[in-house]
Give the backbone structure.
Amino acid sequence: MAAAAGARPSCPGPGPWLRARLPALRWLPRYSLGWLQLDAMAGLSVGLAVVPQALAYAEVAGLPPQYGLYSSFMGCFVYCFLGTAKDVTLGPTAIMSLLVSSYAFHEPVYAVLLAFLSGCVQLAMGLLRLGFLLDFISCPVIKGFTSAASITISFNQVKNILGLRRIPRQFFPQVYETLRRVGETRAGDAVLGLACLAALAGLRAMKSRLPRAARAEPLAARVSYLIVWTSATARNALVVLFAGLVAYSFQVMGSQPFTLTGSIPRGLPAFRLPCFSMAAPNGTVPFGTMVEDMGVGLAVVPLMGLLETVAIAKAFASQNDYRIDPNQELLAMGCANVLGSFVSAYPVTGSFGRTAVNAQSGVCTPAGGLVTGAVVLLSLAYLTSLFYYIPKAALAAVIISAVVPMFDAGIFRTLWRVKRLDLVPLCVTFLLCFWEIQYGIVAGVLVSGILLLYSIARPPIKVSEGDVLLVQPGSSLHFPAVECLRDAVCSRALAAASPPRSVVLDCRHVSSVDYTVVAGLAELLREVRKHGVSLAFCSLQDPVRQVLLSAGLEGFQHFPSREEAERCIGAAPGGGGAAPPFTSSREGSLLPTGLIQ
């Protein structure tokens, strides 16, 4: 004890700060061989899913297929060290690819620069701890956007299923042209695409109904379960591989009824800064012009990327009993996008489908992402020549199979039953997203904000009749609500059809007031006093009482309970009553003199 008392106090050092900013330090010292086996298997399973999806999502983004692969490995490596969720995998997704298509104009230079700038925005938000901004995007807005995106992305791939070319990318012209030219369908692409869709749906259904094999069952049953589970989990890779073999067989025989992906450059992308200008036929497009062209996308892309990642991370963290840090997720995504732009990646975010595969494979730590990233790098280094024979119809089937579950038809019925007013931002977002994605999201957020402000401006106010009028606001009072409160009091207490009555304002549910509310209460006190009645406050919370006392409202009186307030102000003629236990005078008033005469 003496030695301890004489020792110098220890400095906390940078350990806690480093562990907060580098979450890998929390699990890396405890890493074991058992974890390595499970992480490797999970990473391999995700890798088999991400390669065909990456090629397909590049098509959604309007970019050459190699850019999907370029975007699929850096996020895995970065998130391993900076992410706070063991299950999440970062990479290209259907929604992010759709956003990139809207804001990058199908130009790789724009897409890579968008990744860099989005990463910078996310890093800044993480350092400033602005993750709370996601709380202002309501669930109906999210559901409206994802449901519209599901339809938009799915229909965008119908042209590849049918083998049609030169179809516009805008949704409504796309629907018109596809229906008008349906007679030009290539039979080979249509048959293969529909067959791939059926196979993917069958494998998905088989996996959802697959009973888990117990350890006590015979070895043959457990091996059969593993084979079926692996086939269903890697269904994208299996279907694309089968379609590629079929296309290669036709190529060998001298005919090709399918539209193929075509040549993909072999090798890893160069590690370099993204281009901050772009060569154009009529000159060079400078950095400032590119930023202006991307416009609101520089806010929509990082916010939607964060929203998708945090929503997925929270879902799996709750399921697997651990916690995430939204601000740290911002830093992880920001670093992934900034570093990804150095290898020609477009913006990435968390993938729900691949995260589900990761979790179902028994991943123990984010280290599984290292294996997934390695699979993508090996594919870029050695397998790109084989990707030439992948039919576009098969990749379209992969995309449609992935995005159809995003459409939540039940949300419309649920909101109609639970709260119909929430259907307004849902429908506004859903419908406008078919026109322009950014308009749909912004309009949905604005409508949700207006509904929120309306509830603040018109709080529930309960009025109880009697010799003394009891008025009870149901929530805190902010400046838009002061006129509503004054109208509720004056219309009932000072009504011409009945004699004026004193008023008790029960503030038990009011936890905060602002200056405008205080000024409005001063006007209300003056108005009721002109009619010879009293207004008393009861059940004030400490912060509210201190604000009102500091304001020095003339005639302000308050009581600990409603019963005492009613007894005191209701006993005397004219509502004067006995002298209240708590009063305030004009001395030291914080209000303008015109408000307390």
